[in-house]
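Database export, one record per block. Field names are fixed; values are copied verbatim from the stored entry.
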Amino acid sequence: MSEDHHHLLPTTPVEERVNVLEALLTENGIIDPMAMDEVIAYYEHEVGPMNGAKVVARAWIDPSYCARLLADGTAAIAELGFGGPEGSHMVVVQNTPVVHNVVVCTLCSCYPWPVLGLPPNWYKSPPYRSRMVREPRVLLAEMGCPIPDDVEIRVWDSSAEVRYLVLPMRPESTEAWSEDALAGLVTRDAMIGVARL
C-alpha cells in the first residue's frame, strides 16, 4: 500500500484503555516511556522469530545439530545463544511429509519468547486455543494452511513447564542455499505450525 493510501485506523477500546493507563502510570512516575520503548525494541530486534529462524536454518544444514535439537531442544537452542525464562525447557517437534505439528496453549498463552518473540494476539485468543484442539484441520485450513487428509496432525499443548517449537520441512530446491538465506524463509507461523513453507 502506498503512503498516499495509508490511513490510520480508529483506536479500539482496548487501545484507548492502554493509552489512558500508560498516561496515568507515566504521570505518576511509575513507568518511564523511554524504558518501555527500550523493552519493546528489545523484543522486536533481539528476541523474536529471527532467532527461531536461525535455529531452524542450522538444523536444515547440519544433521548433527538437528539430531541434538530434536533430542534436547533447550541445550541445542542454547548452543546458538538463545534461552531464558520462557525458553528454559524447549521441545522441538519436526514436521515430515506424513506428520504436521502445531502448537497451542490451552490454558493461557505460554510461548517460547527467546525464539519466537512476543506471541501474536490470535495465539492468545480463546477461539484459537479451543478450536486447535477440537478441530485442528478445519482451523488450519481457515488460517490458510490446509493439511491433506493423509497427513497426521499432532497438537502440542505448551505450558509454563514445557514450550514447543515446530521444525518445519525444508522447502524443495534450497539445497545450495546459505544458512542465512534459509533463515530468511522461516516464518514465525511456520514455527508454531499454522503455516507451511
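Remark 1: Strands lie at 90-94, 99-104, 152-157, 163-167.
Remark 2: Residues 1-6 have pLDDT under 50 and may be disordered.
End of record.
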